Design the sequence.
């Protein structure tokens, strides 16, 4: 079995030969489940498997990968280094949380941001990344202190784009106004949860992002796996380590979606998807591409995770397909009307 110390020779894709993406939205590979065997939430630790996933991503004309310092307690970034992502022409974005990561505790104070980013760069084997994100709000540190420090890191050349994740719309506005007033690097990207079953960001967050010219990257477009055909009211067995495994840290998805309104919503979507010869997964991804509030010309992207190249291939192909039949679009609207009152806040 391969280990984290092994390397995989990448399939070199020259820019002039890179295929043109066929999807309406950019696609970013999420890597939360990649890393060292035994690390928290890691399910893919064979570099050959993850290397094949990168090959598949690039075959479809995409080249962005999303990671974080907290993923696998740092082993996810190390895993990507073993895949020689720079040689592949991959653009990596990483995130720094304001929480404890294994034995280390991070914040968004000035004296923590640079060391935290430096640890990510060392693990990734690089002097810079494409995007640096604040993973979650740090409500114990003034935004001005954080943003000034981020600006200094940007001016020093450690990253090109600045991103934020899981902030409320009013916090985004405050951050953008502070940056504009002080001439600091303004956020380029906001990353947040968004799917056909979690649309509460549409009311206030999307207008805010559009006003300030911030692109939106959605994660969990399949609602943690609920928008597949794997789970139902009577499901009693769960794949170990999955988002709905009650014994796993990611089992918090059960609190979000394992309820009667969600199953009632799926009762509306699934039969119509089947009627049109598609899986619930295909229907949900095509909804994201063509019927959500996301827009390719605004720089928006969808972040999708995977456990194999085959799974990634299927999801990328679904994202390349056309709009849904009108009755299925209306089914998604009806489904949302059933679950929106129970939807968890989009911000941390």
Sequence:
């Amino acid at each position: 079995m391969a280990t984290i110390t092994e390397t995989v020779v990448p399939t070199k894709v020259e820019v002039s030969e890179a295929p043109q993406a066929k999807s309406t939205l950019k696609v970013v590979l999420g890597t939360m489940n990649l890393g060292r065997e035994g690390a928290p939430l890691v399910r893919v630790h064979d570099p050959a498997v993850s290397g094949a996933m990168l090959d598949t991503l690039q075959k479809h004309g995409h080249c962005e990968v999303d990671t974080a310092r907290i993923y696998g307690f740092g082993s996810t970034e190390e895993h990507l280094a073993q895949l020689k992502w720079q040689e592949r022409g991959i653009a990596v974005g990483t995130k720094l949380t304001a929480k404890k990561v294994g034995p280390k505790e991070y914040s968004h104070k000035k004296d923590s941001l640079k060391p935290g980013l430096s640890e990510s760069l060392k693990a990734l084997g690089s002097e810079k990344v494409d995007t640096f994100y604040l993973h979650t709000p740090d409500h114990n540190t003034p935004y001005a202190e954080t943003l000034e420090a981020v600006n200094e890191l940007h001016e020093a050349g450690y990253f090109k784009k600045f991103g934020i994740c899981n902030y409320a719309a009013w916090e985004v506005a405050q951050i953008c106004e502070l940056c504009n007033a002080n001439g600091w690097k303004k956020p380029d990207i906001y990353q947040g949860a968004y799917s056909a079953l979690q649309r509460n960001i549409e009311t206030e967050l999307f207008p805010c992002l559009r006003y300030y010219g911030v692109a939106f990257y959605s994660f969990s477009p399949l609602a943690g796996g609920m928008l597949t055909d794997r789970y139902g009211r009577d499901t009693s067995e769960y794949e170990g380590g999955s988002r709905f495994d009650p014994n796993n840290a990611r089992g918090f998805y059960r609190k979000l979606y394992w309820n009667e309104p969600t199953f009632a919503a799926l009762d509306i979507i699934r039969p119509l998807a089947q009627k049109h010869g598609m899986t619930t997964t295909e229907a949900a991804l095509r909804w994201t591409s063509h019927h959500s509030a996301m827009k390719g010309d605004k720089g928006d992207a969808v972040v999708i995770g995977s456990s194999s190249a085959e799974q990634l291939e299927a999801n990328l192909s679904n994202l390349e397909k056309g709009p849904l039949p009108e009755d299925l679009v209306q089914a998604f609207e009806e489904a949302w009307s059933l679950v929106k009152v129970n939807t968890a806040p989009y911000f941390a």
